[in-house]
Amino acid sequence: MSLFATKPIEPVDPAQPLRRVLGPLDLTLLGIGAIIGTGIFVLTGQAAAAHAGPAVVLSMIVAGIASALAAVCYAEFASAVPVAGSAYTYGYATLGELVAWIIGWDLVLEYALGAATVAVGWSGYVVALLGDFGMQFPPLFSAAPGTAVVLADGSTVTALFNLPAMLISALATWLLVIGIRESARVNAVIVVIKVGVVLLIIGLGGMFVDSRNWQPFIPPNTGAFGEFGWSGILRGAGVIFFAYIGFDAVSTAAQEARDPQRDMPRGIIGSLVICTVLYVLVSGVMVGLVPYQQLGVPAPMAVAVDAARVKAMSTSWQPILDLMPFIVKLGAIMGLSSTIIVQMMAQPRIFYAMSRDGLLPAWASRIHTKYRTPHLTTLITGGIVMFASGFTSIGVLGELVSIGTLFAFVIVSIGVIVLRKTRPDLERPFKTPLVPALPIASALVSFLLMLALPWSTWQRLIVWMVVGLVIYFVYGRTHSKLNATRSSGR
User: Fold this and answer.
1) Mean of pLDDT values over 301-306
2) Which of 51, 90, 204, 320 has fewest C-beta within 10 Å?
3) Do residues 481 and 358 make contact, with C-beta atoms less than 8 angstroms apart?
4) What is the average pLDDT value for the chain, to the nearest integer?
5) 24-483 adopts what CATH topology?
6) pLDDT bracket for residue 425 (50, 70, 90)
7) Which residues partner with 158 through β-bridges?
8) In b/e form, how buried is each residue of 437-471, taking b as 16+ CB within 10 angstroms?
């Protein structure tokens, strides 16, 4: 019984218990909901101030291209293997059970901890918005344990846990338990709002851009790699890459799509293209409104909006721009809310697929009799997200999410090449172009970005994987349905 035995690719089962209610628009909006979040509201300014200057626009394009390499690989798999499980299922079909378990366990870092990361960011914006209305949220309950929270008088207190992050995690869990259709509808409304906010910033801010702020477009390198110049553009792309994470969450909803073989590639690639265009435009407006050196703050978009307000004094646009700080914070809260929903939607469906294969207990694939959702794994995911967001800093969470996501990208990219060799006859409504060159490039880019992460993040990844392997060899291997079938000779 080989550890690398592959699972047969199952045909779409019309009687499967999950509801097929998602169309191409739903899937595209899910992707946009997952992608537009922390990155566009925070990381753009930091990349401009520390690495790329006005050329952060080019960093956005480079990061978008790197993400597109992985996206087309996901799109081929989503059309050829239209079942729940995303990279886990793809790995099982191409590289074997052990690799599938590793990637399934790794995806907890991407989806569950990704939702936790965004929940922490959501908490920060909510606390700030309450402050604008003269309401101070209790600082003891506004950040991870040990975090020094600065009060209005300049003094500090040490936080105990992040209550707002835990509350939004609980709310998202409840929404996902009651149904995928309801979750998709809520996400669609939020996506319309936050995309509207981004377009408003692009439209109004674009009228007050000072082209002198774009000069020099590529600031000269300081002598250190990654500090401006062309190396700064590359380093900026690495920082911004986090902003593109999320499009792959669409693939976890394959068994809830009405026509997954046709619509999954559209949702994955469509959402990425739309977000890339928005990212390029909004980053260009931001560095055109203020000198890029002023954007290295936690809320760079607010800084840019304030600059536009000053330039709009005594014009007909001033009343609208006076409302923009509130609109930006509200848009950020909305944007982060939908990202949490989509990330938390993805994780239970990974557990569901692993349970159906016997690698996790049978209860993990139970479906609610009324709501037709994997309610037990949704509740477990919600518990993980609540704990992680309440008691872990955003820096640690963000790095773990990045390394987990990049690892998944490497596996999927290699899997495309393997499946082309092992199953050349498989129907592929969407095909990755330039195989094997493009998948190899995708895997290399993702691995290089992994190498750029701190050693402490690698250590946490190794510990997490060791724990996962222990669970696999103690439980998963002995309960694997594939191994049971192979040992019985069927």
Assistant:
1) 79
2) 320
3) yes
4) 83
5) Amino acid/polyamine transporter I (1.20.1740)
6) confident
7) 148
8) ebbbebbebbeebbeebeeebeebbeebeeebbee
